[in-house]
Amino acid sequence: MNTLYDFSKLTGAIHHWLSARFSEHTVNLIEFTLAGVSIMIFFGILGLVLVYVERKVSAFIQLRLGPMRVGKWGTAQTIADVIKLLFKEPLINKDADRLLFNLAPYILMTAAFMAMTAVPFAPGLQAFDPDIGLLFVSAVSSLGVIGILLAGWSSNNKYALIGAMRAGAQIISYELSVALSLLTIVVLTGSLQLSTIIESQRDGWWIFKGHLPAWIAFLIFLIAGTAETNRGPFDLAEAESELTAGFHTEYSGLKFAFFFLAEFANMFIVCAIGATVFFGGWMPLHIGPWHGFNAVMDFIPPVVWFFGKVAVLIFVMMWFRWTFPRLRIDQLLRLEWKYLLPVNLMNILFMAFIAMMGWHF
Amino acid sequence: MMDSTALLIFFICSLIMVGAGMLVSHLVAPRSKNIQKEEPYECGIPTQGTSWIQFRVGYYLFAIIFLIFDVETVFIFPWAVAMKEVGLAAFVEIVIFFGVLGLGLLYAWKKGALKWE
User: What is the pLDDT of residues A282-319, one digit of tens each?
Assistant: First the structure.
């Protein structure tokens, strides 16, 4: 088995190499810094790839070609866009609250970055694995809404204010559904640690082992996750046809780019957590006692499994965006409070009953 | 201790990431002063009044309901972890808990707090 299957050998080797040279405390510091820098690089790559993919997928759905000019099949288009944004003049509106206006991108990006540290990419490839992993991710990623509210309010622009208020109401509402649908599966795992949750799916993914409630929970998670990242039919916070750009109307240059990067990073985090909890993260498709089948599936490296699952979920979310018409704010809040939330509560009871009777696999 | 050190380092890394971007943009971006550019963007004609106003109360209503249900979610986290070990007692307790909560939701619903107008 080479490193593609188990990254703990690679990280172990780095740890060994460092331990021989520095004291234990310094080794920890260096390792965490390395992890932080790797995530930074990953953020950059993620932004470049996802913006390109989003444009190509939307073009595919609308029977267009999408970006084709810069680089082969337009692959360098995003790089060109970043360079363009870097050379744009950063404008600040004269009545804006300058401190909060500049602070907002930091808060948004920090929330996304911290949540990304807990994502398990492959065995041994997880920067931070606390035993309250799921709580940590949902807590930290929900801090991003403060950045959005600050951005909208400090801009002193009516479009931005309306967009931020909508985003605030929407994100806090749908956060409940995201947390509750994940908790439906936690009832079965009995642990919030992400690595333990993955390990508990060695004989099959929870979506298959958890019967109907797991499917209901996954559907709710997908809808609420799309809403929480301000995407798809739920993008009224930045509804371009009515609010220009919503809460980031006044932002320009690289600050504007950071809002987009945070949005795509949040989308990745939601899909990664969904893949981890419902589809086994990097765990290959295993079916209980079919050892031959399981062994064949193990030949595909865990990293490929993880990114494959996340890519499918991201594609579904993009598909949503370009297929459904945008909801109105009252429809959006009605969907959450009168449909998703009661269904979710009943679903948890249903799952708790199944777990109590031992009917799950 | 290890965990908090890790979090601190990741926090600093995220600040550096955004800060470095801002710095590069600050260094290379062109600047030209123009009074028109500093106007808030609305639709072309001069903007009317400030946007720091009392905004519609409907949003705050939802924020208050959210607070109740978010605290409830925090209660469910430890319950969900312990559910399988505790068994029947945990199930009975969550039924009672959700019963009370459901009554609360029903009350808000009947009072019209979930209606947007």
Answer: 888 877 777 787 778 778 888 888 899 999 999 999 89
Whether residue A1 is predicted with pLDDT greater than 60 in this model: the reply is: no
Could you give the ipTM of this predicted complex? 0.85
For residues A55 and A66, what is the distance between their CA atoms, to the nearest angstrom? 6
Q: What are phi and psi of A210, to 5 degrees?
A: -95, 10
pLDDT for res B55: 77
Average pLDDT of adjacent 10-residue blocks, chain B of 117 residues: 80 89 85 78 75 77 83 86 84 89 86 75
Domain ranges of chain B: 52-117
Which residue pairs from A319-324 have beta carbons closer than 8 angstroms and sit at least 24 positions apart in sequence?
Answer: A319/A57, A319/A61, A320/A226, A320/A231, A320/A232, A320/A233, A321/A58, A321/A226, A321/A231, A321/A232, A321/A233, A321/A235, A322/A57, A322/A58, A322/A61, A322/A62, A323/A61, A324/A232, A324/A233
Helix A302-323 × helix A253-279 angle, to 10° = 120
Distance separating alpha carbons of residues A246 and A158, to the nearest angstrom: 9
Whether A90 sits inside 8 A of B76 (CB atoms) is no
Mean pLDDT along residues A127-131:
81
Residues 6+ apart with CB under 8 A from B60: none
User: Which residues of chain A are within 8 Å of residue B7 when distances are taken between CB atoms?
Assistant: 114, 128
The model's pTM: 0.90
Comparing CB atoms, the residue among A102, A157, A258 nearest residue B41 is A157
Tell me how far CA of residue B19 lies from CA of A103, A107, A134, B9, B23, in angstroms: 11, 12, 28, 15, 6
C-alpha span between A310 and A304 (Å, rounded): 10
How close A135 comes to chain B (CA, Å)? 8
pLDDT of residue A271: 92
